[in-house]
Amino acid sequence: MYHSLCDTDVFVAGGGPAGLAAAIAARQAGFTVTLADAAHPPIDKTCGEGIMPDGLAALHALGITLPPDKTFPFAGIRFSDDTHAVSARFPQGHGLGIRRTRLHQVLVNHASDLGVTMHWGARVTGVYEEGVLVNARRIRCRWLVGADGQNSRVRYWSGLENSSNKKRRFGFRRHYRIQPWSEFVEVYWTDRGQVYVTPVAEDEVCVALITNMQGVRLDDALGAFPPLAKNLSGASIITREQGAITQTYSLHSVCRKSRALLGEASGCVDAITGDGLSMAFQQAQALAAAMARSDLGLYRSAHRRIFRLPRMMAELMLLMDGSAWFRRRALRALAAEPALFSRMLAIHTGALSPMKFGVQGTLALGWHLITA
Q1: What SS3 state is found at 72?
Q2: Is the residue at 91 inside a domain?
């Protein structure tokens, strides 16, 4: 699909997992692809480091199977507070924990094998009608993809900045040398936020905190949940505590003319859902299909569909974060009826349509909330 008037069919600004997925999907569709990022691989980011089953399916569609020696499987999700706990298994297989740096290198290697041209340490400094400026050099392209994160410059330059009110929380993460003690990703609910424990290797777990309290750090949250602190006692800390901001916002449009946004540049749901990577991988496939048909309107519709369910789940979970009374009542209700939690997890990971949860499921959950 190379056009003689262009230096490349597709130019991707941003070399994180979202940008690499977009580049890989575009190459699979037959485009020539160039990618640029100011950083050098492997690129790290503060996150929970778990990929849900629907995210693994999207990766598989990109031709990527994560190597067993760089991952650790988990069977489902476990929620707990100081009085109740409930767990559920994924109905469509397992998820995988993987260090972000390991995931990034796998994606870089696959993009390279497919023939993506990658410029690391190269800064995108502007856009013009026919393409982009990279380190002040003009590169002509047919399609421009902005995958440059929450503070996307491509979004600003393309006039797509208008968004809903942004909400933000704070995330912190570090790694411990210890054998995983659970087959689940564990989510501990406290008054100071949520602590996630994800197994990422046979002798390593990732511990992440998401909170709306600016001064709270991981040790504060661990102190609020003694059973977790006990599990980690004696484990060596192998990475420093690293922080980031997680935002919630949506855009009125994610594309304009020949420019499209993807990943966090195109809107964010709170990291509480763990859906960021899965969404980006699905968006990459949808964008490549739309470019192949020369119709970004198809991507706009697909993006809206991909974004809808994670946003709904994030809003529900943030209700639990915002009200200790509601959180305790919800966890008590789910613990009393674990099948409801299993069905909600199936919806979350795309194995069950929300419509199939139905009136009966909604009434059952409502009844347990009332009687909890």
Answers
A1: strand
A2: no
Residues whose CB falls within 8 Å of the CB of residue 254, separated by 6 or more in sequence, listed in order: 160, 260, 261, 262, 266, 267, 299, 300, 303
| CATH number where 131 lies | 3.50.50.60
Pairing of strands 33-37, 8-13: parallel
Compute the residue count for the chain.
372
Do residues 261 and 357 both lie within one domain?
A: no
Domain check: are 194 and 47 in the same one?
A: no
* Residues 6 or more apart whose Cβ sits within 8 Å of residue 12: 19, 22, 23, 26, 33, 34, 35, 36, 145, 147
Structure tokens that stand for 283 in this block:
């968006």
Find, among 84, 83, 5, 21, the residue nearest to 56 by Cα.
Answer: 21
Q: What is the pLDDT of residues 294-338, one digit of tens each?
A: 999 999 999 999 999 888 888 888 999 999 999 999 999 999 889
353 and 214 both lie in a single domain: no
SS3 259: strand
| DSSP assignment of 181-211 | --SEEEEEEETTEEEEEEEEETTEEEEEEEE
Round to whole Å and give the CA distance between 277 and 52.
9
Is the distance from CB of 32 to CB of 12 less than 8 angstroms?
A: no
* Half-sphere CA count of 79, side-chain side, radius 13 A: 24
End-to-end Cα spacing for the chain: 60
The residue from 295, 316, 337 where one domain ends is 316
Give residue-wise pLDDT tens across range 16-65: 999 999 999 999 999 999 999 999 999 999 888 999 999 999 999 999 99
Residues 106, 145 share a domain: yes
Query: How far is residue 165's CA from residue 209's CA, in Å, rounded to a whole number?
Result: 23
Q: Exposure pattern of 63-82 as b/e (b: 16+ CB <10 Å)? A: ebebeeebbbebbbbbbbbe
